Amino acid sequence: GKDRARFYEYSLGSARETRDWYYKAGHILGNDIVKNRLQILTEIIRLLLTIVPEERMHSLREDPPAYDVLES
Q1: Which terminal CB of the chain, N or C, has fewer other CB atoms within 10 Å?
Q2: Category of 30 on φ-ψ map: left (φ > 0), alpha (ψ -120 to 50) or beta
C-alpha cells in the first residue's frame, strides 16, 4: 500500500509538471493542442487526487489551475 501510494504521488507530481510544460510551450504548439492536453492532464490529476488519499489515509487537494489558454 505505501509503495503504491508513493508511486501515485510521483505520478501526481509528474502530471503537474507536465501540465506546466505544456502551458509554457503554448506559443510553439498552438492553443488547440495545449487546451486539449491541459484538459487531459487536469483529469489525470483529478483522478490521482482521488486515489492517493485512499492509499495514504489522508486528504490532498488541488487548487484550480491558473492557466489561461486563448481561444484562436
Answers
A1: C
A2: left
